[in-house]
From TrEMBL:
<keyword id="KW-1003">Cell membrane</keyword>
<dbReference type="GO" id="GO:0015833">
    <property type="term" value="P:peptide transport"/>
</dbReference>
<dbReference type="InterPro" id="IPR017871">
    <property type="entry name" value="ABC_transporter-like_CS"/>
</dbReference>
<feature type="domain" description="ABC transporter">
    <location>
        <begin position="8"/>
        <end position="257"/>
    </location>
</feature>
<dbReference type="InterPro" id="IPR013563">
    <property type="entry name" value="Oligopep_ABC_C"/>
</dbReference>
<keyword id="KW-0547">Nucleotide-binding</keyword>
<dbReference type="GO" id="GO:0005886">
    <property type="term" value="C:plasma membrane"/>
</dbReference>
<dbReference type="InterPro" id="IPR050388">
    <property type="entry name" value="ABC_Ni/Peptide_Import"/>
</dbReference>
<keyword id="KW-0472">Membrane</keyword>
<dbReference type="Pfam" id="PF00005">
    <property type="entry name" value="ABC_tran"/>
</dbReference>
<dbReference type="GO" id="GO:0016887">
    <property type="term" value="F:ATP hydrolysis activity"/>
</dbReference>
<dbReference type="InterPro" id="IPR027417">
    <property type="entry name" value="P-loop_NTPase"/>
</dbReference>
<dbReference type="GO" id="GO:0005524">
    <property type="term" value="F:ATP binding"/>
</dbReference>
<dbReference type="InterPro" id="IPR003593">
    <property type="entry name" value="AAA+_ATPase"/>
</dbReference>
<protein>
    <submittedName>
        <fullName>ABC transporter ATP-binding protein</fullName>
    </submittedName>
</protein>
<keyword id="KW-0813">Transport</keyword>
<comment type="similarity">
    <text>Belongs to the ABC transporter superfamily.</text>
</comment>
Length: 330
């Protein structure tokens, strides 16, 4: 049996809008092995969240269309599953942590009711048995006095506590795949570090796979085994985490790294990537990044590069990556 928990092949997702068809994700391809953490990085509008919602089957069906591709979870294509089958898979085989726990948790139900809901649905536990298990789940993610917390409501908990509740809910049925969509964005750095540590410990204990969506390269360095870089809906680079930081091959990846603040304070002015991400209804001809790329050539402006396999751990969609390496730009 393959050790790949998730395989996404040539995924293309579009939305119907007043201004015409908007292609949010174009031919995205990547995989996650068992026990591995893969981070998808990129600016807002790069297609990260649409990709994760496609995997979970949570895109609004009225306006979204998966035009091409496969999403294989444990070898089974999720795009062929019915709504009922997806409800059984969500929570049990895969689960998701959302960005803002205050809007994801139901304000009128207790913490205990919400953590135990998945256990009662998927594991057919009694309410008493599920609440007992919920206490253990809250304890596992580092929430103090869990016996008391199960009777409280979301507004009675801090932001960090609420995010831990979300993690406890997601992991209650021991899924093989956890999708975390910007789970630490709304938290201060101290609580962020604690939540990331909880996730790393739980991954070590359960050997689950994690798809981590973020724009924070500091978080990437802390949690990732492998990194997928997306730009304007397309995957432009994929590599092991140390390769991304030591030798980025795509100019966009290089731009993201150069835009990181320096801890030593030696640089007075931070570098930025000129321009903005293009509108998905009006993508530029050729390489999507060429209007913002300082290394763009005529070829880049005319023909879009495909994702080229460099070796077993590296892929890049750039016509000039070899020339950039020769110039020691990267």
């Amino acid at each position: 049996m393959s050790d790949e928990t998730l395989v996404v092949k040539d995924l293309t997702v579009s939305f119907s809008t007043e201004n015409g068809k908007l292609t949010a994700v174009s031919n995205a391809t990547f995989s996650i092995n068992q026990g591995e953490t893969v981070c998808i990085v990129g600016e807002s509008g790069s297609g990260k969240s649409v990709t994760s919602l496609s995997i979970m089957g949570l895109l609004p069906k009225q306006i979204s269309t998966v035009e091409t591709g496969e999403i294989l979870l444990n070898g089974e294509n999720l795009l062929e599953k019915s709504s009922k089958e997806m409800r059984n898979i969500r929570g049990q085989e895969m689960a998701m942590i959302f960005q803002e726990p205050m809007t994801s948790l139901n304000p009128v139900y207790t913490i205990g009711d919400q953590v135990s809901e998945g256990l009662r649905y998927h594991r057919k536990m009694s309410k008493k048995e599920a609440l007992k298990y919920a206490v253990k789940a809250l304890e596992k993610v580092g929430i103090p006095s869990p016996q008391q917390r199960i009777h409280e409501y979301p507004h009675q908990l801090s932001g960090g506590m609420r995010q831990r509740v979300m993690i406890a809910m997601a992991l209650s049925c021991n899924p093989r795949l956890l999708i975390a969509d910007e789970p630490t964005t709304a938290l201060d750095v101290t609580i962020q570090a604690q939540v990331l540590e909880v996730m790393k410990e739980l991954k070590k204990d359960t050997n689950m796979s994690i798809l981590f969506i973020t724009h924070d390269l500091g978080v990437v360095a802390d949690v990732a085994d492998r990194v997928v870089v997306m730009y304007a809906g397309a995957v432009v680079e994929e590599a092991d985490v140390w390769q991304i930081f030591e030798e980025p091959l795509h100019p966009y990846t290089l731009g993201l790294l150069e835009a990181m603040p320096s801890v030593d304070g030696a640089i007075e002015r931070m570098k930025t990537i000129e321009g903005t991400i293009p509108n998905a209804t009006n993508l530029p001809k050729g390489c999507r990044f060429h209007p913002r790329c300082p290394f763009a050539t005529d070829l880049c402006k005319e023909t879009e590069p495909t994702l080229e396999i460099i070796d077993e751990s590296r892929k890049v969609a750039c016509w000039n990556y070899k020339e950039l390496k020769k110039k020691e730009v990267i």
